[in-house]
Amino acid sequence: MITLPQLPFANTALAPIIESKTIDLHYGKHHQGYVNKLNELIKWTPFENSDLETIIASVDAWPIFNNAAQIRNHTFYRNSLRSALENNLPSDDFLRAIEQKRGSFDAFKQEFITKATNNFWSGRTWLAKTPHNELEIINTSNAGTPLRQETVIWNKDWIAYIPLFTIDVWEHAYYLDYQNRRPDYLTNIRSLINWSFAENNFSK
Asked: Please, what's the largest Cα pairwise distance for the chain?
């Protein structure tokens, strides 16, 4: 049975950038809803006692994959955040890895905001590590995840990227605080990025 992971912070810890009312809606209603639905769907199936990673990597049935991936993506998003820091930067080593790929940290920030702003579908924008240990900014829609990045569409080859952090751009992640001002949300949330979490994922 899949359970709702505990919040890694108090529901007030991200304010005023993300207020508690948004956390309560996003976590208590949306996230919990995916957990409830997945448990209904996997009952009496071979996945009844599987963990989320196994389900996401192997299942082809869309309703099961959708709910499992949404649970993991929501958890990953919350672990990507922590209380705000005024000068929020990664460690020197990780900063150099970003600068090597993007030229400067400011260029990386701008590219991430631009790509996330232009993520047309409801979904997420990720910083991910490719199989060649390169950093890529990836947009996914709906329940998409870099764990199943489709690289050759015509024969459906999948390759696993390692997600480092993600920002949720579904409207329910920010609408109560920012209405339709997604760029403001993306600009402000930079101070909440949990770089330690991202760096630990990068080292895997």
From this structure: 52
Q: Yes or no: say if 191 and 85 are a contact pair by the CB < 8 Å rule.
A: yes
Contact between residue 149 and residue 159 where contact means Cβ atoms under 8 Å apart: yes
Q: In whole angstroms, give the CA distance from residue 184 to residue 164.
A: 22
**pTM recorded for the entire structure:** 0.91
Could you tell me if 79 and 194 are in contact, meaning their C-beta atoms sit under 8 angstroms apart? yes
The Cα–Cα gap between 79 and 160 comes to 20
Q: Which two tokens stand for residue 121?
A: 């579908």
CA 59 to CA 69: how far, in whole Å? 11
Comparing 142 with 75, the larger pLDDT belongs to: 75
Burial of 62 (0-12, 13-18, 19+ CB in 10 A): exposed
Query: What confidence tens digit (pLDDT) does each residue in 113-165 have?
Result: 999 999 987 899 999 998 888 899 999 998 888 876 554 443 445 567 899 99
Closest CA to 79 of 203, 161, 202, 192: 192
